[in-house]
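Pipeline run #58 for the internal structure catalog. This entry was flagged by the ingest filter as a single-chain record with no existing model, so it goes straight to prediction. Upstream metadata was stripped on purpose; only the residue string is passed forward. Reviewer on rotation: M.T. Logging verbosity set to normal.
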Amino acid sequence: PLNSALEYCQRMTTQLKLRRAKEKRLKLCDRAVTALESIIKLGELAESQVASLRTSLHDRAVYWRDRCYGNAFALAGHDLRDTAMDIKGVLDIRVGSERAVAPAQHISNASALRASVMGFFLAYWEYVLKNHGGLALLILDDPQDLLDDDNRSKLARLLPELAGEGAQLIVSTYDRFFAREAAEAGRKFAAIEHRSVHPVNVHNPVLRIPVATEELDRKRDAYLADKDNAGLAQDYAGEVRVYIEARLSDMFDDPAYPAYAYPTTPPMLTALIDRLRGLEKAAPNALFRGRAVKDFCNSPHLRAGADVMKVLNTPHHNKATLSAGTVYAVHEALDQVRRLADKMHMAFRLFRWHEPLEDGSASSNVVPFKSLEVAPFKALIHPDLAAFTAHAASDASQDTTGDLLTDGWFADKSLFYIRADNLGFAVPSGCIAIVESAPYEGRDHNIVVARMPGHILARRLLRPPKSDQLSLAAEAPDPRQSKPTLMVDASSVAVHKIVGMLTEQPAPPIGKGEAVEIIGAASLAHIKAAYRVREESGIPLALPGQIVLGGEQVLQQQLSGLNNTLVALTLADGQSVFKRIAGAVPGTKGRIWQFESIGGLGSSLVVSLSDEDAKDGVPVFASARRVLGVLYTS
């Protein structure tokens, strides 16, 4: 009996402990119920805060959405009406027209839905940044995706406004057109860097992000505008090296063709060029047999010891030792090397896309344009028109170190006799167009010589964005005689940019087409001076920034034999203009001469050859120089 009693006591003790634990738990539950009464109100508070935030964000969400998205037609889309969010954080975007409202995911297209989400995101980011000090950094990856062309342009113009609101933007995109639009829009309002992305491969351990082509062009133009600025020269030369190096490194992304067994990782410019030449000679595949690779490897500017290679290597070792004059001496060659690198990189991309390449070893049925052979010369580029027209001591000296035009400008250029009035006042029929020997991709509104099977055309190029079609338009001085615009496939035409014109009108050569290639021009041997246009007196013959080529001075007694000749004329009162010699005014015995305007702008001018007429208010001839041509690029 005693053992049984002890067992019962033990069992009762165990049950008692369990009961007391449950009683304690019940007391804690009662306490929690009391506490939860006040905590439950926090949910209501959160809902009211979300509702208040949603109300305050709505107007800004609509603003940002409309800044990056718009309907092409008034009744084609729906307006953003509401942006609600439930307690779980699920965003509910509602759109509608007039009195009808519905969830956006059911009635909006993908573009409108993307824009609505972006509008809410930007409104929320803006609110947090201003009120709570949120992050300023925004990383946008292909924000233009799903948007059409017009709305992509709107989005590109929106990005600088975000920078104005305090954002530090990093935008990545596969769309080159959007990148260019965004960079162009951003450059007007904020500091911006436009860079291209070259991926990591088996030989490149890091991502390369050299400046994009347009950014490099901007650095070149900035330097050429201030040729004596050593900092700009060093920056441009250094960026050209990195630009070419990145494109070369992409060429060796295949493990079968390693870019180096070299001491540097990643390999440097000289090592990459040497390896490329080795593969070009062995030609293991169509890429290295292609003409683009061969042209790059055979460029004389990339040979060991060439001046261009010295300039490209100096920034890598000691940028400060590179002078502005050294860079200017090879700036045209740097442009040529850049173009060769771009063509080679395009061939590389086509090869990776399994597109056909132009075989460098295959014969071509298209005869390349022959480059000019111009006798060496140096001509001083005068800073003003009056100095250009007058006799200058520097005309007789070739040792001047000022701003010069040399025969090097005409390297890789060809000449064409223009047979038709298709280029307006830019290159009249009978004159000579200066054309780049190598074809290029063609840019909108350039004047070009276009090679088609059986035809050579001289036209204005119109190139719609993201289109494989080109328009070749004629701009006759008389619109009634203008030829119809031609639409051609970009792949069926070779386009050569017109970069200048010569006023010389030689005997028409034998040949058909709107332009005929010629081997030379007599006027090129008579270039004595040059003038960079700074005013608008030469329109439409020459625009500001272009270079006018000047020949011999025109004396008073020579005027009678130069009717219809273009001249730069300076009067006794200091006025300088571009005019065409029209002839002596009848009844003045050759004392009064008429000079006509050179195009659609300006007016005729009557000039006296005698100082005695100055007192009667008649302009008096001071000096003149024959105009041989105009160069559109410096």
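catalog note: The first strand starts at residue 79 and ends at 85.
catalog note: The first helix runs from residue 2 to 68.
status: ready for reviewer M.T.
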